[in-house]
Protein 1
Amino acid sequence: MTPDPLSARLLAGDPRAIARAISLVENETAEGAALIARIYSRTGRAYLIGITGTPGSGKSTLVDRLVAAIRRSGLTVGVIAVDPTSPFTGGAILGDRIRMNAHAGDAGVFIRSMATRGHLGGLARTTADVALLLDAAGMDIVIIETVGVGQDEIDVVRTADVSIVLLVPGAGDDVQAIKAGIMEIADIFVVNKADREGADQVAQSIAANLTFQTFQPGDWQPPILKTEATSGAGIDELWAAIGRYRDHSADRRTARQQARQEARLRDLLAHRFAQHVEATLPAGEFQRLVDGIARREIDPYSAAAELMARVVPDTQRGGPFAAAEASAKAEGPPDAARTGRSSAAETSTKAAGPPGAR
Ligand SMILES: Nc1nc2c(ncn2[C@@H]2O[C@H](COP(=O)(O)OP(=O)(O)O)[C@@H](O)[C@H]2O)c(=O)[nH]1
Ligand SMILES: [Mg+2]
């Protein structure tokens, strides 16, 4: 590879390079993918903290306090605020600007807001890639703040090493979290706005819910902490709890990372493959199949098998689709079936043009 000033500057922790790199990755450019390839071997050091909670529960205020606590312990920190508002409009960004000012001039802090919409490859993947950039730039800790609604956001939090769920009194938040399946992802519970009435009830209902989960001896039992993000009360205890969780799960972190990498590779492969299929087909062909499925003219399995056969001729020899197709063609002699398939494959190869034509 030729020397790339951007990756060199990113690895040196240059804030402008980080910002540029994030834009490339966030916009899902080929340059962004190439950058990830260049820096990937230099990642894996940062500890990822995921924080989720409903809008207004005080995530940003708490993250701000946490950043200060992390800096006091001498570590550097990057923050990815995944916000449902567009980066160009909305009040949430104003909040983030204010936060940037609070840590302005501190080279050990990098804060970036990200829009939730428009990530073709999925929000969780983009967030994970941005976390890689911050990791490569030398941040010891990366905090990902996200609104805890929807599967996308839950996936985002899942990509972290530790997941923190924020709840507040008087919002029916405890019930919401239980409904959203968020109880299961929490390694640490935080009841924020502890200055408000009802904080103890929220803590109690979380505790009551945890009794339904079975813990083996030596299992981590999610602690329930109370914080007051506006005053900073309870933040040191939260930072300490994160440290305890990190120690407790040190050997399991590898397993978690392994699972994460496997999921990422599978997800990326599926995404790339789908892109490749659509790009290979004649214009309108994919949509034609979709319409056919909607009109019940073809079932989704056969449509997928047809696409596979046209794009990757060899796939007919194995996999679930091949099995389905083989049984469908079981009446005919096997040789005839194979000949039929390979001629179909040749046709599609011709239609797509010779390899290397583009
Ligand atoms: N009373 C009280 N208000 C808080 C606390 N933490 C945050 N807030 C306020 O709650 C509002 C929403 O906070 P913000 O951090 O923007 O929430 P986010 O949407 O979850 O990021 C702001 O007005 C904060 O000042 C707290 O511990 N107690
Ligand atoms: Mg916020």
Protein 2
Amino acid sequence: MQIKHILLYGIIGVSFILLIVGFWYRSQPNLEIGKRLVDNSCGVCHDLTSEKKHERGPYLWGVYNRPAGSSGFPYSEAFLAKLEKGSFIWDDKHLEMFIANPMQFIPRTNMGKQNSKHPTAFSGIESASNREDVLAYIKTLK
Ligand code: HEC
């Protein structure tokens, strides 16, 4: 085998390994990005601290694996109607569906609505990898 072939195969081999490592690295959730997203996208309406204050929405401290609608917050009729159809807990699957598109998961929820008192609304996080980072960070709020 000629030296240039050895070099060529070497480069292909190393690139392949870097590619795999890159995929593995990106598939790990990033807590720093998660914190930034949660502070910016959820913190406007939710208390994220152990003070557990209700703000525009219920406090999110300990929300991971908490039964939906159990924080004592005055939930909307739309939210309560969803619970009447079947109670659930905020596990990965349900949090993922809710933050991807709140209005689709709970039609007419106050989280996705604007009103004169609260001009902001939350339409969801489009990027799957951002949602993964958000979920990873939400789990640390306990
Ligand atoms: C525009 C304000 C607003 C934003 C932004 C917002 N929420 Fe909410 N959230 C609400 C409101 C209001 C409710 C109560 C919904 C209802 O009663 O219909 C709620 C409810 C929830 C609940 C249900 C909690 C329980 O006690 O069952 C979860 C979970 C939640 N939000 C997570 C999030 C996350 C995670 C983010 C950021 C990615 C976020 N929210 C961003 C306003 C918001």
